[in-house]
Design goal:
216 residues, alpha/beta, 7 helices, NAD(P)-bd_dom, NAD(P)-bd_dom_sf
Length: 216
C-alpha cells in the first residue's frame, strides 16, 4: 500500500510513517523544507518536497499518482497568523483533495479538529475560532468531492506514550488522546471501509484500536 501524507514532518505524520513502514507499506511524506527529508527517511518513509501553499494542481497530482491512500495531516501550527490558517488548513487541504481526485486516489483521510462543528457559537475574532473555521471549510469541501473520504477529529493532543485504547465515534464528547494513538488510528483507517463517508471523533478510551475500528 502506498500512502501519501501531507504535512509529512508533523509529529503525527512521522509516527504514522514509522507504523506504515513497519507494516511493509510505502509512506511518502510531503514537506516544504528539504531539511526535513532526513527525518522522514529515518522514520522509514520517502520525502517529496512540495509546498502546498504554492504548488499547482498538476504538481500535487503527480506526487499522488499511484497512491492507494491520501492523508491530509498538515497544519499551519499554533504560532501561525490568521492568513496561513486559511491558506494551509483550508486551502492546502482543498488542493490536496482536488489533486487526489485528478490522480484517481479514491481513499482520502483528512485530520480535522474537534469543535469545528460548533464554530458559529464562538468568538469570530479569536485566533482559535479562525483556525476552526478553516478546518470546517476544508471538511465541507471534502464532503462534496467524489472520494472515499473519512474525516478524523482528534481530541486534545498529548505526547504521552500511546495506550492503544481509544474511543472512536461520531460524537465522543471532549477528551484528550496521544499522538501515538492518533497515528495508529490513521494507519488502521486506511483499511477500514466502514469509516468511509463519516466524520469521526477520537479520544482516549477503553477499547483496543483494532476492535474500535472493526466496531464502526
Amino acid at each position: 500500500m502506498r500512502v501519501v501524507i501531507a504535512g509529512g514532518h508533523g509529529q503525527i505524520a512521522l509516527r504514522l510513517t514509522k507504523l506504515l513502514a513497519a507494516g511493509g507499506h510505502e509512506a511518502v511524506g510531503l514537506v516544504r523544507n528539504p531539511a526535513h527529508e532526513a527525518d522522514i527517511a529515518d522514520a522509514g518513509g520517502t520525502a517529496a518536497v512540495l509546498d502546498l501553499e504554492k504548488a499547482d494542481l498538476a504538481a500535487v497530482a503527480e506526487v499522488l499518482a499511484g497512491a492507494d491512500v491520501a492523508i491530509f495531516s498538515a497544519g499551519a501550527g499554533p504560532g501561525s497568523g490568521n492568513d496561513r490558517k486559511d491558506t494551509v488548513d483550508r486551502g492546502a487541504a482543498a488542493l490536496f483533495a482536488e489533486a487526489a481526485e485528478r490522480a484517481g486516489v479514491r481513499r482520502h483521510i483528512q485530520v480535522g479538529s474537534m469543535g469545528a462543528d460548533r464554530v458559529d457559537e464562538l468568538d469570530p475574532d479569536d485566533g482559535f475560532t479562525i483556525y476552526l473555521r478553516a478546518k470546517k471549510a476544508a471538511e465541507d469541501d471534502l464532503r462534496g468531492r467524489d472520494l472515499d473520504w473519512t474525516i478524523l477529529r482528534p481530541g486534545a493532543l498529548t505526547n504521552d506514550p500511546g495506550t492503544g485504547l481509544v474511543l472512536i465515534a461520531d460524537k465522543t464528547g471532549r477528551g484528550s488522546v496521544t499522538r501515538d494513538d492518533v497515528a495508529a488510528v490513521l494507519a488502521g483507517l486506511c483499511e477500514t471501509p466502514a469509516s468511509i463517508g463519516r466524520t469521526l471523533e477520537l479520544i482516549a478510551g477503553e477499547t483496543p484500536i483494532a476492535a474500535a475500528l472493526s466496531n464502526l
